[in-house]
Amino acid sequence: MRLLSVDLEVGKRSGRIHALAAVHEDGDVLTRSRIKARELSEALAELDGFARGAGCLVGHNLTDFDIPHLRAAAPDLELLRLPVLDTLRLSPLAFPANPYHRLVKHYQDGAIVRGQVNDPRLDADATLELLADERSAFVEADRDLVLAWHWLATIGADSGGYDRLFAEIRGVDLPRFSGQFTFGA
Fold this sequence. Notes:
By secondary structure, the chain is α/β, with parallel strands linked by helices. The protein has one domain (3-170): Nucleotidyltransferase, domain 5, CATH 3.30.420. Helices cover 41% and strands 15% of the residues. It has six helices and five strands; from the N terminus they run E-E-E-H-E-H-E-H-H-H-H. A five-stranded mixed sheet has the order 3-2-1-4-5, with helices on both faces. The longest helix has 21 residues, at 120-140. The N and C termini lie far apart (43 Å).
């Protein structure tokens, strides 16, 4: 599955997308910064075209942040139909002793300048690196635990990306449950 990592920068007051980046795992990059309101539809159309051929959309807090902003700005984007993987949701599974609830931004290490703006390109790259670390952790995890995560991650809607990820790691598709659970004796 060809992954496309996406990151948006959104104005806190305006709620408007003002910068974006998308990075294919093979290294192709799209960046748009300082997007003016009148240029947003053009930038999103460019992003949508760049996403063609991607098999899965990846992001850190993608589900609760980036996708709602994309959907609000341009609900007909084809990329919104792609399966998703949210590294923020995977991190507690991969790293239970130290779940990353924030994307580690090494480019901001050191003397951080007051008011420093996030870089969506570097965040999209960092998200792909985090996903690689999460994949490695899942490969090393107990097989029964990974099976449980596979099943639990695919219960709800928009679970196609998680199904693909865990099927790839496990080397087998998830069997579909068609019975019912019974509890007690």
